Amino acid sequence: DKGNHRHFMLKEIYEQPVVVAQTLGSYLRPLEGRVSLPVPEFDLAGIRRVTIVACGTSYYAGMVAKYWIERFARVPVEIDVASEFRYRAPVLEEGGLALFVSQSGETADTLAALRHAREGGQKIAVVVNVPTSTMAREADLLLPTHAGPEIGVASTKAFTCQLAVLAAFAVNLARDKGRLSAEEERRIVRHLAEAPAAINAALAYDDAIEAMAGSIAQARDVLYLGRGPDYPLALEGALKLKEISYIHAEGYAAGEMKHGPIALIDEHVPVIVLAPSGPLFEKTISNMHEVQARGGKVVLISDYDGIAEAGDDCLATITMPKVHPLIAPIVYAIPVQLLAYHVAVVKGTDVDQPRNLAKSVTVE
Ligand code: M6R
């Protein structure tokens, strides 16, 4: 049932404050200022390396997790798409944890990669939305997302819930490895607990995003730029737009622009820049200026301070609530989803059932 919404995708976008709160609720203990995961049968503190494997949007959630795990737990993380991982003779050593991320828990390549990692002696952790799925059954450490059934082929609420779980996982691993003080953990838990309200505040920009969708819908190509943990969001934004509006889009690490893609820039290529205030803001903005100097039309997604500082010469700006850089990827997912949604509606495509795509890809 779509409720009052025109499409399942929009309904699922709007469910995010609630389902992210539900998901965080099962991993955070806000009163104690602690994260608590289900206790695995193996010793998490003994993990020396994490290998993340997934496909599509779930892979981008995994990319964000790599930043978090390395930053907080100081454990090296490797990440690969499932269809590559299996066929490249990955080196799987003792003390390795393989972490699989999947909404459905049935994606053929991810499942095959899981079995490959198990044969290679890895402990298996699974972040999955369907609790009865095959991957859920085969996990040593099951980390469910509580997004509820996701009907739209374009993944939205599953993604933000995956991020919520992965953030909790990173913090828990960091604590177990003795890399996080109780005070730091308390601070992080407080920031994570702010995510649902920040998502809600981000949803308030729906009308503003809808209003600019018409101009993006005319484009043949769109670029998305981000840095650090917001770089995967650029990739996710481009995937979402491609999937449902059929407009060609690419996501790039903002600093990679001048190594090639900047050649594409002219006044016909909108560039969506994801730049929350924080340690990487100035660097991203200087890449944005390189785009503008070549006539590129920029849509800047930032917070009030960021837009006050850098929003002047943009085609449009989208103001996000000011959030801690840790939760920015969760909050900045919202405008990226809404933009793809409204552009697809302008183009009149079948938003919930885009051509050539299936909700669950159970063939290799
Ligand atoms: O069920 P999974 O999370 O394993 O699915 C992975 C991808 O097929 C999926 O994320 C796909 O990229 C979505 N259609 C993206 O919106």
From TrEMBL:
This is Glutamine--fructose-6-phosphate aminotransferase [isomerizing]. Its EC number is 2.6.1.16. GO terms for molecular function: carbohydrate derivative binding; glutamine-fructose-6-phosphate transaminase (isomerizing) activity. Homodimer. Catalyzes the first step in hexosamine metabolism, converting fructose-6P into glucosamine-6P using glutamine as a nitrogen source. Keywords: Aminotransferase, Cytoplasm, Glutamine amidotransferase, Repeat, Transferase. It catalyses: D-fructose 6-phosphate + L-glutamine = D-glucosamine 6-phosphate + L-glutamate. GO terms for cellular component: cytosol. The active site is at residue 359. GO terms for biological process: amino sugar biosynthetic process; carbohydrate metabolic process; fructose 6-phosphate metabolic process; protein N-linked glycosylation; UDP-N-acetylglucosamine metabolic process. It is found in: Cytoplasm. Residues 38-179, 212-354 form the SIS domain. It is an enzyme of class 2 (transferase).
